[in-house]
Amino acid sequence: MDPGSSDTPPNGVEKTEALRGRANGNNGEGKWAGKAEFRLALAGMSMGMTAVCHLPYVCYISGGGAFLVLYLVFLCFCGIPMFFLETVIGQYTGVGAVAAWRKICPMFQGIGIAVQIMVLYHNLLNVVFLAWGLFYLFNAFKNPLPWVSCDNAWNTANCRNHSVLNGDWSFLYNITPYYDDIESNRVLQRTDTDMKSFGPLGNLRGELVACLLLVWAACYFCTWKGVRWLGKVVYFSVAFPLLLLLLLFFRGVSLPGAWEGIWYFIYPRISHMDSQVWVQAVVFVCYTFNMSQGVLTTLGSYNDYKNNCYKDCLALCILSGVVSVFSGFVMFSLLGSLARATDTSIDEVYQHYEMMPFTLYLKAVSALPGAQFWAMVLLLMLFFLVFNNLIMCMDSLVTAVVEMLPCKLKRIGRREVLVLVMVVICFLLSLQMVTQGAMKLFQMYENYGLSWTSLMFIIGLEAVVIGWVYGADRFYDNIEDMIGYRPFPILKYCWLFVIPIFCTAVVFLSLASYFPTEKFSSLDRFVGSLLMLAPMICIPVFILVPVCKDENNMTTSACDLRQASPHKPRLTLCKRVILRGQTSTPKQPEEENPPMESTSGV
């Protein structure tokens, strides 16, 4: 098979069957009912808990406004190009991540498997956030809120009540953080030995298991019918938390001390800037947009072939950046008011909340008049932000399994059964995350499973495969065939140079200072290394598949991919041809392609 081979006949008219197959998605899952569904789904993936909850904290420790500038720069040169690349691959191929990379370049089909492992890690972290969120939400109906009083059986001797300024701002103050009480003694009921090593996980927490079951049940009923049902769910699950965020903003800026907090958020602290901050900025952009997980590719595969996803991706990336900064205003307005109320600095307010910043925001809203209402608003907002990620990641996993076993699973009624089986399996896997020793396991998945090394390695490889193996110019031709014009040229050079260089630098910097010996034992580091290597090892392993089948066509794309200009060079730099296009036109049987008759008026 020649590179760039096409299913387009010599007369330039594509076979109707091929185009229809891609438009509806070759994965058999159908397509979006409208553009709004696709845009809302992308918004749900790019505006999750990372963007809303973690950005304020990362900005706080990394230089404030100086970090925001770096974040916006990397958003333009790394976030937007990769967000668009992963999405448009799905739209072009019409299939999910596993089949898409197999069609683009059989040699690197392991990328599709690797991103599914990353999705599984992400799901395990997402679902534990949701279980905790439900647990807090159910307790938010109690009056007073359980975490603003020392009168509970699970409080420690270090807990004491303290009134601040006036009765309306009375909340809990402790020698040790009082939210450690509810996390350690009420939610997880962990012991000192649970935090020393990976070891035994302890007993299951019954209340958290029930919350976990509710989350997975909701996930099943949101994904069991595929994109047709998922497209309806996102109308509420994406729009509702953004409305709650807006509500929190108006409440936050009306509080005394709010603008001091916002100024602290945007004020540039150059002294904090070092190489690690640059690394955090580029990595945070990639985490925000959920790259290297294949979900964007799956969402793009539900589009019509001629959909202008370029415009959609640009608009949504800009919107996501705005929402991330806006969420910083919301959270720091609350923290500024909390600092004013406690007569402390924001630095002191932020102490002890490095790992779970959302509990700090819960503390801030719990100090407001009408604490129950505002606590529910915050918890509901965070719940739906994470739930959007969960259901779309689950849909991507299901699509990947269907594509690996198409003959058995692409039948009527099989999807519902498959989703049920996968939800049950994921529920059983996630039980480990609601044990007494789950916090250590949570840190393992966060630090090793979703490590910077794995994330940036996969992202860099995706850019290299598209830019240097498949051919950036050929990919531009494909995009032009879909949307009617060529994207801005800077994207090509980001795929060819900027992103691979950034990713390589981050991988080496993260490996140089990766294993925090004071935090993890030898056993922890061994298990963590396995978690980190699992997705990356898939790529060289699956290189052997095309080697055994046909080593001459290892980098040849699938023949059913539409090529508008197969004879043009696949890659040119400085007017020099780096990768040539198709050298000869495949012979077509005479009966399939009869000579075209001359017609007038054409």
Can you characterise this structure?
The protein is globular. The chain is an all-alpha fold. It has helices at 16-24, 35-46, 49-61, 65-93, 97-104, 110-139, 178-187, 206-223, 227-253, 258-266, 275-288, 295-301, 309-342, 346-350, 357-366, 371-404, 406-409, 414-430, 438-449, 452-483, 490-512, 522-550, and strands spanning 159-162, 171-174, 571-573, 576-579. α3 (49-61) packs antiparallel against α11 (275-288). The two termini are 33 Å apart. Strands 1-2 form a two-stranded antiparallel ribbon. A two-stranded antiparallel sheet has the order 3-4. The model is unreliable at 1-26, 162-182, 192-198 and 586-602 (pLDDT under 50).
How would you sum up the global shape?
A: globular
The low-confidence runs, each spanning 5 or more residues with pLDDT under 50, are 1-26, 162-182, 192-198, 586-602
Helix proportion: 55-70%
Total individual domains: 1
Portion of residues in beta strands equals under 5%
Number of strands: 4
- The level 1 CATH classification is Mainly Alpha
Distance between the termini: 33 Å
What's the Cα radius of gyration? 26 Å
The number of helical elements comes to: 22
| Largest sheet, strands/sense/barrel | 2 strands, antiparallel
CATH architecture identity: Up-down Bundle
Describe the strand arrangement of the main beta sheet, using strand numbers: 1-2
Mean pLDDT: 82
Q: What is the helix/strand order?
A: HHHHHHEEHHHHHHHHHHHHHHHHEE
